[in-house]
């Protein structure tokens, strides 16, 4: 599925969910010459249709005149389409329901998502499903604009078939994504990679509550230790920390003029005036697995409850200083 091969066997990439991750990947595919269409909503969709997608990245500030639709039903579907599912995990069920109304069940669905349950949900409706470990710091805060902070590669994408193996399309997908500027490879154990990535995503709740100041990494470490204990009790493999670190080694946050890094995607949703139910797919998932396997998860349960208060307007986003939150997490962990 290189650009040359695409001319002989035209593949169209349909990015379902053109937020920070989806728009970043879609823009890179479009830049590399691949047939790409974004599916976006509301003002974001209108801005892209009117003015194109503004892409800001390391050394890049340009507008991509990329095709955009408001819903999968607006597209004509064929056997040449590959769906890149990039909605938030809490929106997966609705997105798949809308997609299944119009796309053939054999359509490959590639889950460019954090969390651990999206691939299984996609497999209930589609027969060829891939998961992706996404390491791509990016931002969508303004309609019609995406900022990709990843450098020197445009991000790291490790993918594999669900429930296992690299899949028939895995190596070709990795080749395509590499040609589009990413560091990408296919692996046979994608869920083990995604569990390792989830350990970092547990910090999204801390970002929502307190931001990225001193003590942030200590909080992530505490939440991660709980999660690792849960995965061990459940018999769920996790990619080794050093193997994961080697895969993303050399990547850095680029400085984009006028666009300081705003934090993780969950905090971005809150900053756009939304809520943070995604935490339920991260910290909440660890709490659920902990209950199922008899492992206490007081710290993850606490941050999930506190973020719920942010979503309900009881407390402000980033209004709980880390020097207050971190002792509360430690106290909860010791009391378990």
From TrEMBL:
Cross-referenced InterPro entries: 6-PGluconate_DH-like_C_sf, 6PGD_dom2, Ketopantoate_reductase, KPA_reductase, KPR_N, NAD(P)-bd_dom_sf
Name of the molecule in the record: 2-dehydropantoate 2-reductase
Organism: Frankia canadensis
Organism domain of life: Bacteria
Similarity comment: family membership: Belongs to the ketopantoate reductase family.
Keyword Membrane: no
Keywords assigned by UniProt, alphabetized: NADP, Oxidoreductase
Domain named Ketopantoate reductase N-terminal: residues: 14-161
Class in the EC hierarchy, top level: oxidoreductase
């Amino acid at each position: 599925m290189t650009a040359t091969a695409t001319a002989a066997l035209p593949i169209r990439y349909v990015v379902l969910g053109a937020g920070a991750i989806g728009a970043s990947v879609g823009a890179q595919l479009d830049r590399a010459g691949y047939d790409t269409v974004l599916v976006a909503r509301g003002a974001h969709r209108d801005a892209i249709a009117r003015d194109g997608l503004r892409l800001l990245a390391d050394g890049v500030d340009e507008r991509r005149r990329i095709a955009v639709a408001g819903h999968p039903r607006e597209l004509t579907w064929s056997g040449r389409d590959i769906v890149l599912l990039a909605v938030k995990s809490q929106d997966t069920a609705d997105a798949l329901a809308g997609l299944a109304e119009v796309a053939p069940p054999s359509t490959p669905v590639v889950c460019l998502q954090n969390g651990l349950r999206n691939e299984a949900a996609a497999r209930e409706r589609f027969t060829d499903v891939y998961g992706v470990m996404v390491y791509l710091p990016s931002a969508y805060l303004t309609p019609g604009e995406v900022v990709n902070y990843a450098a020197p590669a445009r991000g790291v994408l490790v993918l594999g078939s669900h429930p296992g193996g690299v899949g028939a399309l895995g190596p070709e997908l990795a080749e395509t994504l590499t040609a589009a500027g990413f560091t990408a490879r296919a692996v046979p154990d994608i869920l083990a990679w995604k569990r390792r990535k989830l350990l970092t995503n547990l910090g999204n709740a801390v970002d929502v509550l307190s931001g990225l100041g001193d003590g942030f990494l200590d909080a992530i470490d505490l939440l991660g230790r709980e999660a690792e204990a849960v995965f061990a009790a459940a018999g769920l493999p996790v990619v080794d920390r050093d193997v994961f670190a080697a895969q993303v080694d050399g990547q850095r946050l680029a400085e984009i003029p006028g666009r300081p890094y705003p934090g993780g995607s969950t905090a971005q949703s809150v900053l756009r005036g939304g809520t943070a139910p995604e935490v339920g797919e991260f910290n909440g998932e660890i709490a659920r697995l902990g209950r199922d396997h008899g492992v206490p998860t007081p710290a993850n349960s606490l941050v999930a409850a506190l973020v719920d208060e942010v979503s309900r307007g009881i407390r402000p986003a980033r209004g709980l200083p880390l020097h207050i939150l971190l002792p509360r997490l430690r106290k909860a962990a010791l009391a378990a």
